[in-house]
Structures are given as C-alpha cells and as structure tokens.
Amino acid sequence: MNIIKILLKQLFLRPATNMFPAKYAPESATDFLKKVGDKSITLINPVAVPDRYRGKISYNREDCTGCKLCIRVCPTKAIEFIPDEKKIKIFVSRCCFCSQCNDICPSNCLSMTSEFMLSNYDKFADDLIVTH
Ligand code: SF4
Ligand code: SF4
Predict the structure, then answer these.
(1) Which ligand 1 atom minimizes the distance to the CA of 70?
(2) Whole-angstrom Cα distance, residue 24 to residue 40?
(3) Would you tell me how many other CB atoms lie within 10 Å of the CB of residue 115?
C-alpha cells in the first residue's frame, strides 16, 4: 500500500487513544470536577484494563499467616509487618505493582486488582493503605 493510501485511511479512523476522562483538558480541574459532581457533564469512561493487569493490591487478612515472605521480596519496602497481630499492611503509594508479593505468598492472600485510579494528595490516605 502506498503512502497516500495509508494517509487517507488514517483520516477516517477513530483515534486510538482513550479520551478519558474528557475529550479536551479542562481549563480548571476544580470546575470540571464540580460539573461532574452536579452531573452537568459526564466523564468519558476508561477502556477496560487487560487480563492480568496489575493495579491496586488486595489483601485477604483472614488467610494471612504472617510469614513475612511478601515483605522480604518487596523491592520498594511497601509492606509493613504488624507484630502484635502477625498481619501486614501495604502502602500503595510506595508500591511499584511488580506483583512479587502476590507471586510468593504461600497462602494466596494477595492479588492485583484492576483498580488504577489511585491519585491522591495524601499518600497516607485510607484508600492508599491496604489492611484487609
Ligand atoms: S506489588 Fe511489588 S512493590 Fe507492590 S507491595 Fe507487592 S512486592 Fe511490593
Ligand atoms: S506472604 Fe502472604 S501469608 Fe505471608 S505475610 Fe505476606 S500476605 Fe501474609
């Protein structure tokens, strides 16, 4: 296919990028979010994440035996041991989503979810500390 044909074809294709959360960057993020809040505009949904996507970690506290293997393999020291309870807590703001803790856990109590909207002004916000 010659270059002219390719260019013409491109003109009629839809953009490959997902316009999430809005088609154009808003002048004011605050105004934009207010409008989303009062439903005068709607967000463009993100595309579905692929299978085996590594998003926010999930922790099944019940099944955790407190073996600390996850802490030993975590390259970013995102996991802290709670000695009194023999359980862990995970600081998502430090996590690099490598999934090594998930792979090594003998009790299968860690998993990577598809949740990726994790931005926050406070790195110690409740949403960013996984305890159960
Ligand atoms: S996914 Fe990787 S960086 Fe995140 S808590 Fe597990 S081992 Fe640490
Ligand atoms: S590797 Fe699994 S069982 Fe061991 S402390 Fe971590 S989460 Fe708990």
Answers:
(1) 7
(2) 16
(3) 14
Q: Which CATH class is domain 48-132?
A: alpha beta
- State the pTM of this model: 0.80
Virtual CA dihedral for 93, 91, 130, 74, nearest 10 degrees? 110
Q: Ligand 2 pocket test: pick from 59, 74, 88, 95 the residue with the most ligand atoms within 8 Å of its Cβ.
A: 88
- What integer best gives the mean pLDDT of the chain? 93
User: Does residue 1 carry a pLDDT above 80?
Assistant: no
The pocket around ligand 1, CB under 6 angstroms, is made up of 57, 73-76, 78-79, 90, 95-101
Buried b / exposed e over 67-102, threshold 16 CB at 10 Å, is eeebbeebeeebbeeeeeeebbbbbbbebebeebbb
User: Which residues lie below 8 Å from residue 132, measured CB to CB, with a gap of 6+?
Assistant: 59, 60, 61
Dist. CA 89–CA 25, nearest whole Å: 36
CATH 3.30.70.3270 residue window(s) in the chain? 48-132
66 lines ligand 2 (CB under 6 A): yes
